[in-house]
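Instructor's aside before we start: the two examples that follow are unrelated to each other. I chose them only because their records fit on one page, so don't look for a connection. First example below.
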Amino acid sequence: MSLRNAISCCSGGRTSDALLWWWLTTYAAHSFDFALYGQPLNSKDGVIGISHRGNKLYTQDSLKRARKAGCYTALITGEGIDTSAINSDISFHTVAQEKSSAHTVSYVAAITVLASLAESLGYHRTGKRLLPDSFLSEEIPKALRAYMETESEMAHLARKHLNRRRLWLVVVVQVLSLLRK
């Protein structure tokens, strides 16, 4: 398979920092935007949907749209998800379902899958490995363990700052002044 573009769609729209594809144009899009207003597609495009629970309507619609255009599709989702009704050529199951709505662990897992896909694609296209073999299996887990060891310190800081004044920065676009012009 020879891809022209790789497009990543998820409900959180946070995957652009994870795409490190070699010799391939990549796009990250929120699944809502992609499903309803995405760029024209053809059989040389690949679309990756990311949904930890596998039930986000617009991620599913994005994959359906891609399949109709003849694209190769993949879904990155959590463990225990029945993907038979989701329109994708392949599914990558990452981690168990999380209680936290932030999906922190599954987000890191999705980025790891994207990094692995990028590494494989890079090797396929160039014949070179840019990451050491131990990067995904040893170095990333080691960094995550070091991060997790700070949990009690982070909990202490959260309790300490719980009732402090919050400042919200809001950018306001003056729509009325733009409409008058």
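Example two begins here.
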Amino acid sequence: MKENYIGKSAEFDSSIDNDASLKIEMSPVHTKKLVVKKKNVVKTSNGWQFVDSSVDLSANEYATVTLTRGSGGNELEFSSIANYEGQQSPVEMEIAPGNYAADINLILNQRIVIPEKQQCVRKGIFGDKECFTVPKIDFGEKSAPGQERFPEGGLKLNFTINPGDLSKDTIVLYAVSIDFAGVPESQRTVEDIEQMGKIEEYSRIYQMALQPAFD
């Protein structure tokens, strides 16, 4: 197989009496610059809302990117992995034309704490009010400063890279970021944790706003 091409498998009769030849067209692999930006889901008075405005990653954020190319026809499987750190230069990533599944994990190295709170519920319509304490949740309790690895967000998205896209030098991918850090600690609640499990849902609902860009 040629270097920097995606191979194909094909059946071929190589018997001595056979003069036939086999021509296989392979897809070239290109090395491009990769930049990861984020689009925030922010907490408002009306709940958590997606904001369709891209933001650069900060110095304490990084993303692990895996692009898996669909192996249509007889083409061999191809995937590419890269790590992108906020406020750093673009990294290199190998890509080829085709249909892709993107999987991004966005990590925040910052201590995120949900404070202890007292909640009260009423038993039945006319029952007494019962109060209890929801304990504090400290996601970075056992981590050294700068190594908290809070799972801030990510991306689960299918998209297509066309040959014309690869005439550009840089691919920009957008991750969904649950903006816990932007919520004052006193306003965080245990119910907010549910947002961490909605990355795939946000990726699906806002897939058009999360399509990659080529610069």
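The longest strand covers residues 30-44.
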